[in-house]
Design a protein that fits this description.
By secondary structure, the chain is an alpha/beta fold. Helices cover 28% and strands 16% of the residues. The chain has 21 helices and 23 strands. The strands form 6 sheets. Strands 8-13-12-11-9-10 form a 6-stranded mixed sheet, sandwiched between helices. The protein has a 5-stranded parallel sheet with strand order 1-2-3-4-7. Strands 15-23-22-17-18 form a 5-stranded mixed sheet. Strand 20 and strand 21 form a beta hairpin. The chain is globular and about 85 Å long.
Length: 785
């Protein structure tokens, strides 16, 4: 049962806590001679009126404090306030271990200080990460985002973020720095794991679902939802060389046809409350000072009315990295003018705005616009009316049984079957006496980046999942075989700076032991891939995460080869955050499963798939290239990228949308109606899908289009619809996919969106390479009467 809590007192834990970043206002206590108007506290007034009343009474210091990230606990000298702010400062410590209840108490204490002991009583807006669940100790950890995308199920993604937002809001954290809407078009980039893949349409559908889950369905965001932040705006997912924060220098047409599509959907459809500017530059202009991007496109064209935040340290980069500002004063002036409302760092850049306003170098009206947007967000969240949270509910909601069940269901649906030669999978327990579980990722729980520990009681490794599933019926042996890196494992490795690999020649004994274990087993399950130290956000030269190769690191290929050489049937289960060029494994291993980072319940889901309790139905949201030499490898390229490489197979290792099943499906009777249609009209694409196998299974029906002749080049394929369905053996169903008018549109030579008459190929199938097609004739629109 959900309750509203009004705390009579605050008891702060003396334990060192962990939690979200801080976004608070610490205001001057100096009193003004003018009478104060507290009518902004009236919940019956419209939000814009409440904001206007409050803004008129604020000093320049109070206004700028709203824009600074709130690290300055000035004028708060009483012991209770000092304790509250000190514990709040420590909430982001990696090695702390605060409970959800303690986190709620700390947030309540800070809110009490701000609401009751400052001049205007403006509450805090606590912020946090929620990439694949609330990034806080004890919270539910769902599959990493690339795994969420592999479900091809927006409704399921919406449920994930309803759960994540409830856990966040329950502790008092009311803004989530998610979803990531970057297109992952260079998998060397370590942040590929954070994305919904390479395709604009798929990323847009998943992103809209995530925002709706986080914010709810109304402008007023209730106490169980949070403000969403779409990031990173823009063109962050295909940096030069795959290096994090490197330039994204692409033409305006490419930007609008691809990279901006998910963000436009987030604004126009989901009404996202906040946007985060990206670190990189476009055409020589860093996003944090890009007027065209943040004002012309975002606000004027799309009508965005939320607030724009910098990325952490992004304003400082204007001085220290991009060199487009001589100092923090100039950086603040340029970023504010471009449309960055909020300084998400230590406040050292935007604190210069106080003197600049007083000196007249920055118009106070510019500051007012930014403050107005942030105050609107706080009123929209109801923070002025309900600033406190219920610690009892925070404890109940966090990693609840319901949320763990959801994490398991999502993990089940995210796993992708890449190969199943001679139907090795699912494994038949009745025919097995010994199973060898091998590999560096088998015994540890890997959650991916932007994670915190959900608690040992809620984390299940692949090894543990298999042991639980088989019980005493089958003997399970385990050998690590080799290591990927030396040092901290699991989510803690994401923070490691000095990442090291095992020395040459140190893995021979482990590989020999693994081969011996496989030789004595009926089947070997080898769990390899990456870990949080090798696949992550590269935020400094001391903390790298991008790679110049997609091959397996270290001795993993040697390990797999040694196991296969024993002749024991072998399954490879991949745990990783980006496509890997597993050519040798694909050629030699009978069965391959892609698990990505499957979340806290991933071990249970893996076992269910391995032993046939669950029929895998996930599909790849990103192309697997054979090598980095094929990059870029995304499927929706232009027709002129049609040459093959000399002495090489230029096809992808696994194409976009790919994924097998333990059953089989047949597609028939593809039709489009009406056909022809007028330009600007919509149609319906129908296809009959039959389960031709012996098991119930899930299939993702994918619809692509291609315009045969156009005034500018079109991609060879463009995803424009999909539907995940479940069919029983022998079941036959007709699936209708809406073909919207805008799905056929394009940017003409004058950069205007139009639908040109002509012939369109409508292509439907099980992935981007195995399809059936029909034609749709689009005629010129009728002349207006």
């Amino acid at each position: 049962m959900r309750r509203t809590f009004h705390p009579p007192q605050f008891r702060l834990s003396k334990r060192t806590p962990v939690g979200p970043t801080l976004s608070i206002l610490v205001m001057t206590l100096a009193l003004h001679c003018v009478a104060q108007d507290f009518s902004y506290r009236n919940p019956n007034l419209p939000i814009d009126q409440r904001v206007s009343i409050l803004l008129k009474q604020m000093t320049p210091e109070e206004k700028v404090d709203q824009l600074m990230g709130g690290r300055h606990a000035r004028h708060l000298d009483d012991p209770e306030s000092k304790q509250a702010f000190e514990q709040l400062r420590q909430l982001w410590e990696v090695n702390s271990n605060v409970t959800p209840r303690e986190r709620a108490h700390i947030h309540n204490a800070v809110q009490k200080t701000l609401v009751e002991r400052t001049r205007l009583g403006i509450p805090a807006l606590f912020q946090g990460e929620a990439l694949h669940g609330f990034m806080a100790n004890g919270s539910t950890s769902f599959p990493q985002v690339l795994g969420l995308a592999s479900t091809w199920d927006p409704d399921l993604v919406r449920q994930v973020f309803i759960a994540a937002s409830d856990e966040m809001a329950a502790s008092g954290t009311r803004q989530a720095f998610t979803p990531v809407l970057d297109l992952a078009r260079d998998p060397r980039w370590g942040r590929t794991e954070e994305t919904y893949g390479e395709d604009p349409y798929l990323v847009a559908r998943m992103g809209v679902a995530a925002i709706e889950g986080l914010q709810g369905n109304s402008f007023a965001i209730d106490q169980h939802h949070v403000l969403a932040t779409a990031k990173h705006f823009a063109v962050h997912g295909q940096p030069e060389g795959g290096r994090n924060t490197a330039p994204g220098n692409y033409s305006e047409r490419v930007l609008r046809e691809s990279f901006l599509v998910p963000f436009e959907a987030a604004v126009r459809e989901a009404h996202v409350g906040s946007i985060m500017a990206s670190y990189n530059e476009i055409d020589g202009i860093p996003s944090h000072v890009n007027h065209w991007l943040l004002d012309t496109v975002l606000r004027r064209e799309w009508g965005f009315d939320g607030y724009v935040t910098s990325d952490g340290g992004g304003l400082q980069m204007l001085v220290k990295t991009h060199h487009v500002a001589g100092d923090f004063t100039e950086a603040a002036r340029k970023a504010l003018a471009a449309g960055v409302d909020y300084d998400l760092s230590d406040g050292s850049v935007y604190e210069t705005l106080v003197n600049q306003v007083r000196q007249g170098t920055v118009p106070e009206a510019e500051v007012d616009k930014a403050v107005q947007r942030i105050l609107t967000a706080k009123f929209r969240l109801g923070l002025f009316d309900h600033p406190y949270v219920d610690p009892d509910y925070a404890e109940q909601a966090t990693n609840s049984q319901q949320h763990r069940a959801l994490a398991l269901r999502v993990a089940e649906k995210s796993i992708v079957l890449l190969k199943n030669e001679n139907h090795l999978l699912p494994l038949d327990l009745a025919k097995l006496h010994t199973i060898a579980v091998i590999g560096p990722n088998a015994a540890d729980v890997h959650l991916g980046g932007y994670s915190r520990g959900p608690g040992v009681d809620h984390e299940v490794s692949i090894l543990e999942g298999i042991r639980r599933r088989v019980g005493s019926a089958v003997k399970v042996t385990y050998v690590e075989g080799c290591k990927i890196t030396i040092g901290k494992q699991g989510w803690a490795g994401w923070y490691e700076n000095n990442v090291q690999q095992p020395g040459p020649g140190t893995e021979a004994a482990g590989i020999h032991a693994a081969a011996e274990a496989a030789r004595q087993a009926d089947v070997a399950i080898v769990v390899v891939g990456e870990n949080e130290s090798t696949n992550r956000e590269a935020w400094s030269e001391e903390h790298l995460g991008d790679r110049d190769s997609l091959d397996l690191l270290g001795a993993q290929d040697t390990l797999v080869n040694a196991v296969v050489a024993t002749g024991t049937p072998t399954v490879v289960f991949l745990i990783n955050g980006r496509p890997l060029s597993i050519n040798a494994i694909q050629a030699s291993v009978s069965a391959i499963l892609e698990g990505w980072y499957p979340g806290e319940q991933g071990g249970i889901a893996a076992a269910e798939v391995l032993f046939g309790d669950v029929n895998p139905g996930g599909k790849l949201p990103i192309t697997f290239p054979r090598s980095v030499g094929q990059l870029p490898a995304y499927y929706d390229h232009k027709p002129s990228r049609n040459r093959s490489y000399l002495f090489a197979d230029s096809s992808p290792l696994f194409p976009f949308g790919y994924g097998l099943s333990y059953t089989s499906f047949r597609y028939d009777d593809l039709k489009v109606a009406p056909n022809p249609i007028k330009a600007g009209a919509s149609a319906t694409v129908s296809v009959t899908v039959t389960n031709t196998g012996q098991r119930e299974g899930e299939e993702v029906v994918q619809m692509y289009i291609h315009q045969r002749v156009a005034s500018v080049t079109r991609s060879v394929l463009e995803l424009q619809g999909f539907s995940r369905i479940t069919l029983k053996p022998g079941e036959r169903r007709t699936i209708d996919l809406p073909l919207r008018a805008d799905a056929l549109s394009m940017l003409d030579i004058d950069m205007k969106r139009v639908v040109e008459p002509g012939m369109f190929e409508i292509i439907v199938g099980t992935d981007s390479s195995r399809t059936t097609e029909t034609l749709l004739q689009v005629e010129a629109a009728s002349s207006p009467q």
